[in-house]
Amino acid sequence: MSLFTHRAYWRWSAGVQFARLPATMAPLAFTLLTTATTGSYRLGGVLMSVYVVAEMAGAVPVGRLLDRVGVTRGLPALLLLTAAGFAVLAFAASAGAPNAVLLALVLLPGATAGALSGGFRTLLADTVDDALLPRAISVDAMLLEGVLIGGPALVALLDLAGPFVPLAAMAAACVGAAVVVPRRAAEREREEAGPDVPPVGVGTYLPWLCCAFTVGLLLSTIEVAPLPLVQRLGAPDTAAPVVIAVLSGASILGSALYAWRGKTGDPRLFLGGFVVGGLALAGDFGWPGLIGSVAVIGGCTGPLVAATSVNLQRLLPKNRRSAGFSLSFTVQACGFGLGSLAVGVLPLWLAPVFGVFAAAIAGAMLVAKPVGAIGTTSVTS
To answer: Which of 94, 114, 95 is nearest to 51 (CA)?
Structure first.
């Protein structure tokens, strides 16, 4: 079956985009909310930090719970709990609740949202067959770019109707995602999961987790630092969006080419692109070096994410997939956080070197391990 006429895939895609939307809206929504209610944007930043910490802390244990109860039963419940958390937070802020109460209330949507990505990724394995999987992940990566851009824009638009409206929309998006989660018989889900198989050693997953970490680490050095990158070249601050535009455009193009090719590909090739792009970014070779390095990194991002995801699925037992994918997304988020920290405390030229180092380590791990049939699976669109 062609992916583009695969109704189950597009239902899954609608659900996962709805589920992702609140996370992309949250930073600006929290800031606008606290600015309107307390007069300070700083509380919004603290709320976002607490939210992210709760996400990371809850991702694996909540993902394991999803594995136990079944993702098609557990995901709607998690999404509705997340929606309720955003609604309660908005109500408390409108009622003038103390800051400490708001910080406590944001823990609920954070803890429940942490495993949503892992749960939806587990559902994808049951939605499309292995032959379509690389293309499905690549198309999803392209759609994700639109959600990342559209989330903050939607907050800015909804804020015109009031500072609490964006949180209401975030709650509504979670409800919408819960509605479109595919429903399967619980008995069938338990039969496909099979017995409770213990996971293999962490060393088996480590190269792929390192790939996920590398993606977050190197991307953050670009996404967090467009302003200092153009200032280093003597360009005006208004040139900073060009860097993000090139990164997003290259990422979409790379994912599109990967989807068109329809093969898993060798992740070591994309890690090599990260190494070359990161070194060029650190080297300060003027505008050609900046644009070229950002384009190379962006073009390799989607394919590397897809190859990592496909290979993790091959290794994870069916009864551990939600926890495993949640761990992968958490590791990637840790990489993004550390990359952002590196930009803040290190010289600009040094920050990308850590991403290069991580990519080289991941590549060395994959050289030491056979990658099997990577690149041999093809599909017809």
So the answer is: 114
What pLDDT does residue 260 have? 80
Hey, is 196 helix, strand or coil? coil
Are the C-beta atoms of 205 and 366 separated by less than 8 Å? no
Q: What percent of the chain has pLDDT over 90?
A: 36
- DSSP one-letter code for 227: H
DSSP label at 183? P
Residue type, position 149, single letter: I
Phi/psi at 205 (5° precision) = -85, -20
Whole-prediction pTM value? Answer: 0.81
Residue from 336, 370, 94 nearest 213 by CA: 336
The answer for 201, left when phi > 0, alpha when psi is -120 to 50, beta otherwise, is beta
Measured distance CA(327)–CA(304) in Å, rounded: 17
Burial of 42 (0-12, 13-18, 19+ CB in 10 A): exposed
Amino acid at residue number 159: D
Q: How far apart are CA 119 and CA 71, in angstroms?
A: 6
CA separation for the pair 343, 320 (Å, rounded): 35
Cβ count within 10 A of residue 95: 9
pLDDT at 43 (0 to 100): 85
Helix (H, G, I), strand (E, B) or coil at 201: coil
Kindly give, in sequence order, each residue whose CB lies less than 8 Å from that of residue 188, ignoring residues fewer than 6 positions away: none
* Six token digits for residue 231: 């200032």
Q: CA dihedral in degrees (3, 5, 7, 10; nearest 10)?
A: 60
Query: Residue ranges of the chain with pLDDT lower than 50?
Result: 185-191, 193, 197, 371-381
Spatial CA neighbour of 256 closest among 342, 153, 333, 145? 145
Calpha distance 235→139 (Å, rounded): 34
Q: Which residues of 269-290 are buried (b: 16+ CB within 10 A; e: fewer)?
A: ebbbbbbbbbbbbbeeeeeebb
Spatial CA neighbour of 26 closest among 77, 90, 79, 120 = 90
Rounded CA gap, 307 and 376, in Å?
12
Q: Which of 269, 265, 285 has its CA nearest to residue 374?
A: 265
Whether 166 contacts 156, CB under 8 Å? no
d(CA 123, CA 196): 18
Q: Tell me which residue has tokens 């892992």.
A: 118
